[in-house]
Amino acid sequence: MSNITGKIIGLGSFFPANVVTNDDLAKIVETNDAWIQERTGIKQRHIADGVNEKSSTMAVKAAKAAVEDAGIDPKDIDLIVCASTSPDLMFPTLATTVQEAIGATEDCGCFDVNSACPGWLAAFNTVQGFIESGNSKLALVIGAETLSNVTDWTDRGSCILFGDGAGAAVLKAEEGKRNELIMRSSGARGECLHLETSKQPKRYDEEGFEKKTVMYMAGRDVFRFAVTEVPKLITDLSVKYNFDLADVDYFILHQANARIIESTAKKLEINLEKFPMTIEKTGNTSSASIPALLTEMKKDGRLKKGMKLVFASFGGGLTWNANYIEY
Ligand code: ACO
Questions:
Q1: Residues in contact with 208: Cβ distance below 8 Å, sequence separation at least 6, in sequence order
Q2: What are the angstrom distances between the C-alpha of 136 and each of 99, 140, 170, 277, 285?
Q3: Burial level of 20, CB count in 10 A (0-12/13-18/19+)?
Q4: Distance CA 248, CA 109 (A)
């Protein structure tokens, strides 16, 4: 087996200009800043205007930033995969929209994936499969979400969590440690987090149908699932690939709730400083959260070549994935 893998050589993110604070939310549902901060760690989130800022345009902006950061010619990109659970375009795909906007050629394969919050990791693993099998040399992996379109703004138990944004990474085929991963799923437990598409006109008259076209989340069940499965997944990853969790530089977790991250760090007996967070400023941006966090860490100098990173995400499906990579 060759030692070629996809190295992250560029990172970029984009967040809408409109910042919605917890106090702003307290004007539309019965909640308050202290409760939201204590239970989630979130202070604010960005909400897209839905016209100039939507999943496709944000994907383009994050992708352009990642391409610029990588210092590459977009004409050399041979694969673009975009993860989204809230695309404004089902097709053309977000990936082809990005292809055109950044000036990639027709020799570039493009498709979207949906795996809810772990969507970017699913896309990352897909792209790594292409690169490690020699079928791609330079690829873009994007996560872009406009969750505000599918949030139930009357449900204080969920609307306080989510935000909009996009993140992107450029992966280049280079010598290095291969992508190591575990992917798990449970359709049987999918009910606690679900969203139906509104484009089902034959069901418009069905009682309660409208409510199903915004996100339903049984918060406590999802919380319990995450704090149980994520630490177990990370431990299993270290056993499967025979590495010591103490040697990992950073644990890059999906930014869903600061308490889930804190609980994971505690269960793994790893210092919380190794679990960077952006959730305070962005809320849960689903598939955008991991690439956006990596972008911030690169900009502020925390991320350095050769660092050992664990990625872990969880969400609708239910699905939960983790990776061990060398940056
Ligand atoms: N403001 C004030 N009070 C509230 C609010 C609010 N926004 N929301 C709920 N409460 C109340 C409840 O009504 C309840 O009151 P009661 O005790 O009188 O019944 C009390 O606060 C506690 O409610 P819980 O639901 O038990 O609160 P919890 O501590 O579990 O926090 C939360 C709720 C933040 C949603 C948490 O369960 C959570 O983060 N769950 C995980 C969500 C998640 O990670 N989702 C990611 C999935 S992403 C994807 O795939 C799309």
A1: none
A2: 15, 10, 12, 31, 28
A3: middle
A4: 33
DSSP, collapsed to helix, strand or coil, labels residue 102 as helix
Which of 189, 222, 263, 314 has most ligand 1 atoms within 8 Å of its beta carbon, as the pocket-test mutant? 222
The catalytic position among 22, 125, 284, 321 is 284
Ordered alpha helix ranges (H), 116-257: 119-132, 156-159, 209-212, 219-240
Most ligand 1 atoms within 8 A of CB, residue of 25, 29, 32, 39 to mutate:
39
Using CA positions, which residue lies closest to atom 42 of ligand 1? 219
Kindly report, residue by residue over 99-128, the tens digit of the pLDDT: 999 999 999 999 999 999 999 999 999 999
Q: 246-258, pLDDT tens digit by residue? A: 999 999 999 999 9
3-state secondary structure of 292: helix
284 carries an active-site annotation: yes
Please give the distance, rounded to the nearest whole angstrom, from the Cα atom of residue 161 to the centre of ligand 1. 9
124 lines ligand 1 (CB under 6 A): no
Which residues of the chain are under the pLDDT cut of 50?
none
pTM of the entire structure? 0.96
Q: Identify whether 192 is a catalytic site residue.
A: no
Q: Is the peptide bond before 318 cis (omega within 30 degrees of 0)?
A: yes
Type of residue at 5: T
Ligand 1, atom 9, lies closest to the CA of 157
DSSP β-bridge partners for residue 173 = 6
Which is catalytic among the residues 82, 108, 110, 117? 117
